[in-house]
Write a structure and sequence with these properties.
CATH superfamily: Aldolase class I
Radius of gyration: 18 Å
Largest sheet: 8 strands, mixed
Number of helices: 9
Order of helices and strands: EEHHHEHEHEHHEHEHEEEEEE
Bound molecules: iron/sulfur cluster
Number of domains: 1
CATH topology: TIM Barrel
Distance between the termini: 17 Å
CATH architecture: Alpha-Beta Barrel
Helix content: 25-40%
Shape: globular
Length: 299
């Protein structure tokens, strides 16, 4: 169980717990993978707990989670299992969340997102060179997925870009990435810039400095993105949701904990402007709690 903020989703049922699970393997080969033990695992037995779709949905309900997240590795590679789990969740009123690289063909994309209530899609960089060299995949299918989710589905969409020093964090690339989002997806899709920490095959670069995250956020805001966040780093302003109209604080956060709530019926309580997203009247504060769950305990 995680706070939904950890996915990260900041505009989808903030302050609620999500039951998170994944399998093993991935259809990308990111050299900076932060979950390499899972995504590159061939050792299924060391990782696996058995869980039917119905058991996952039932467990989420019993634990009072509002949603189930397909995460840790790429859900496209367990498409059928994810869709069956989403079907079981929907029967019990549990929402579904995909945390994905968005690298998927058009046909499965259509079926998959028909079952997802929210998605956080990694946009790992903004050049084909970067995608090819560092992820073993390509950029264009990811852009196609972003446009598909935004224009053809009711799935709530947020985007995450992990900034890696010297590889995908130039002003030019950030200008291009954020301008593309505004032009093709509009101003209301939240964008998270998160800090890289040396991992897997990229151990010789330093962690992303906070100054880079802040610079990226400023570029995004200047280009018209209304909700832009910094993550994996201590940055109170960068983790706050501000009203895009009056600029007052709508949701305060301290890492995954909500510290302030100034929304009423999804609108700014100061000026009445709607904040994009899905909000419950009385958001909880599930905060920084994180519980490991053995599904076999619920069978
Ligand atoms: S898409 Fe995610 S899980 Fe897969 S290799 Fe890349 S970083 Fe790792």
């Amino acid at each position: 169980m995680d706070p939904v903020e950890k996915k990260p989703l900041f505009h989808f049922l903030p302050g609620t717990p999500v039951l998170s699970f994944g399998t093993a393997g991935c259809n990308l080969g990111c050299k900076f993978c932060q979950n390499a033990d899972i995504s590159h695992s061939r050792e299924m037995d060391t990782l696996a707990d058995s869980a039917s779709p119905e058991l996952i949905a039932k467990t989420a309900k019993t634990l009072q989670c509002r949603s189930v997240a397909f995460t840790y590795n790429e859900p496209a590679i367990f498409h059928e299992y994810a869709v069956e789990t989403a079907t079981a969740c929907r029967k019990l009123g549990i929402k579904t969340v995909a945390v994905t690289a968005g690298y998927v063909c058009a046909e499965p994309r259509k079926e998959f997102y028909a079952w997802m209530d929210a998605a956080n899609v990694d946009l790992k960089g903004f050049t084909e060179e970067f995608y090819k060299k560092y992820t073993d995949s390509s950029l264009q299918p990811v852009l196609d997925t972003l446009i598909y989710i935004k224009k053809e589905t009711s799935t709530w969409l947020e985007i995450t870009t992990l900034l890696i020093p010297g590889l995908n964090d130039s002003d030019k690339e950030l200008q291009a990435l954020t301008s593309w989002i505004v032009k093709n997806l509009g101003q209301d899709v939240p964008l998270h810039f998160t800090a890289f920490h040396p991992a897997y095959k990229i151990l010789d670069l330093p962690p992303t400095p906070i100054s880079t995250l802040r610079k990226a956020r400023e570029i995004a805001l200047a280009n018209g993105i209304r909700y832009c966040y910094t993550g994996n780093a201590e940055d109170p302003e960068g983790e706050t949701t501000f009203c895009h109209s009056c600029r007052k604080k709508l949701i305060g956060r301290n890492w995954y904990e909500l510290t302030e709530w100034n929304l009423k019926d999804g609108k700014c309580k100061f000026c009445g402007t709607a904040c994009a997203g899905f909000f419950e009247p009385a958001a909880g504060n599930w905060g920084s709690k994180r519980l490991p769950v053995r599904l076999s305990d619920f069978a």
